[in-house]
Amino acid sequence: MVGPPGAGKSLMAACLPGILPELSPGEALEVSMVASVAGLLPEGGLIRARPFRAPHHSASMAALIGGGQTKFTPLFVGDLAEAIARLIDKGEASSLTYELGGPEVFSFKQLMEFTLETIGRKRLLVPVPWPIAKVMGTVMGLLPFAPLTADQVELLKTDNVVSEAAAREGRDLTGLGITGRSIQGIVPSYLYRYRRAGQFTVPKGIPE
């Protein structure tokens, strides 16, 4: 099941045991053995209903590739569109390379922390050294929908920020007369739906 938090995925999953057939004798024995070890087996009987377990949302961890020190300057898509429009209007950028970035520099770790704070979630942020990350990317890259690839790990070794040369020569947002919008003023309006109560929880600073 796919959907944002609060859509009812866990509720639907919890209802499934009630409509599924009872466990077969062999399945009931296996489930009861596990429940017995965990101290959850009722006295004098086997578990017949199919079990449902909902891992807590904080059980998973988030990997900080390379320690999470890679630098980024998040750019609002509206500012990017405005920059493109101005370059087209000027007609003077055919031989120039513009480096467009947001007004603030964040590390990958800071962005992860900001996201978790915005959605009101807790995750264990685990630093992953580059050599281990490379192995992870190589192995995961073989999956159909790879969550991480070796190429992505390699890209994370380089900061994604506006260079000093581009800023000095006016090949950035400021040079185009655009004041970039910060992530604090934009991102919460996108992420509020991922808070604990989903789209029904309004974070601070976002009008109802």
Keywords:
208 residues; mainly alpha; Rossmann fold; 2 domains; two-stranded parallel sheet; two-stranded antiparallel ribbon; 8 helices; 7% strand; elongated
Widest sheet: strand order? Answer: 1-4
CATH class of the largest domain: Alpha Beta
Mass-distribution shape: elongated
CATH topology of the largest domain: Rossmann fold
Q: How much helix is in the residues?
A: 25-40%
Along the chain, the helix and strand elements come as: HHEEHEHEHHHH
Distance between the termini: 28 Å
The biggest beta sheet is recorded as: 2 strands, parallel
How does the helix and strand content classify structurally?
Answer: mainly alpha
The proportion of strand residues reads 5-15%
Got a strand count? 4
- Quaternary state of this entry equals single chain
CATH superfamily of the largest domain: NAD(P)-binding Rossmann-like Domain
Give the helix tally: 8
Can you lay out the helices and strands and say which pair or pack?
Layout lengths: L8 H11 L5 H13 L23 E5 L5 E2 L4 H14 L15 E2 H12 L4 E5 L1 H11 L9 H6 L8 H5 L14 H9 L17
Parallel strand pairs: 1-4
Antiparallel strand pairs: 2-3
